[in-house]
């Protein structure tokens, strides 16, 4: 997905926050990308249908913290605790996080890669009121990168194997 398209979705989501609650939900529900909101402590307070489709589960409002996914991994397949995920960092440090890739482990064992756009929200006095996150699915992009990496590893292995060793 082109970065400017992601920016357009994020702009639409942020603009929706200035509407009344019903109008906000209508706009966010229509977005084709996962979008969710948290309160200032990171508790999920809203998610759209695309979130549940992406995560493979229905997030639990007021119970799930920082993220709508069941489990998160890094691109090197290390488990990333939810309290260290991009959304948690954005809220704790009160700053946008960009350029990360996270792998969502779904309850059925499948995985989906995303580029998250966690963005803290502030009131007129500069106090943190919550955050919004949009997840851009980059699973296909990650699959291509992994296939390229596997090919390089096979080439390297074939050049360093000593075929004369018995």
Rounded Rg: 19 Å
Instruction: Classify the secondary structure makeup into a structural class.
Output: alpha+beta
Succession of helices and strands: HHEEHEHEEEEH
- What's the number of extended β-strand segments? 7
Main sheet attributes: strand count, strand direction, barrel closure: 7 strands, antiparallel
Let me know the average pLDDT. Answer: 86
**Helix content percent band:** 25-40%
Taking the alpha carbons of the first and last residues, their distance comes to 50 Å
Show unreliable segments: none
- Number of helical regions: 5
How large is the share of residues in beta strands? Answer: 15-25%
Shape: elongated
Quick overview of this protein structure:
Helix content is 37%, strand content 21%.
Key terms:
21% strand; 166 residues; alpha+beta; 5 helices; elongated; 7-stranded antiparallel β-sheet
Fold topology:
Elements: H1 3-16, H2 21-30, E1 35-38, E2 44-47, H3 49-55, E3 71-73, H4 86-93, E4 102-105, E5 111-116, E6 119-122, E7 128-137, H5 139-160
Antiparallel strand pairs: 1-2, 1-7, 3-4, 4-5, 5-7, 6-7
What can you see in these coordinates?
With 166 residues, the chain is of the alpha+beta class. It is 37% helix and 21% strand. It contains five helices and seven strands, in the order ααββαβαββββα. The protein has helices at residues 3-16, 21-30, 49-55, 86-93, 139-160, and strands at residues 35-38, 44-47, 71-73, 102-105, 111-116, 119-122, 128-137. A hairpin with a 5-residue loop joins β1 and β2. The model has no long low-confidence stretch (mean pLDDT 86).
């Amino acid at each position: 997905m082109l970065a400017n398209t992601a920016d357009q979705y994020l702009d639409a989501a942020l603009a929706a926050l200035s509407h009344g609650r019903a109008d906000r939900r209508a706009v966010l529900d229509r977005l084709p990308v996962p979008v969710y909101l948290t309160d200032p402590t990171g508790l999920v307070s809203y998610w759209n249908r695309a979130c549940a489709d992406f995560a493979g589960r229905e997030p639990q409002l007021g119970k799930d913290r920082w993220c709508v996914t069941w489990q998160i991994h890094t691109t090197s397949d290390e488990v990333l605790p939810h309290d260290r995920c991009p959304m948690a960092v954005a809220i704790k440090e009160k700053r946008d996080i960009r350029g990360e890739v996270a792998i969502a482990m779904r309850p059925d064992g499948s995985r989906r890669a995303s580029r998250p756009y966690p963005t803290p929200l502030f009131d007129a006095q500069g106090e943190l009121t919550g955050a919004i996150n949009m997840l851009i699915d980059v699973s296909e992009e990650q699959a291509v990168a992994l296939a390229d990496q596997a090919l390089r590893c096979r080439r390297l292995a074939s050049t360093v194997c000593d075929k004369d060793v018995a």
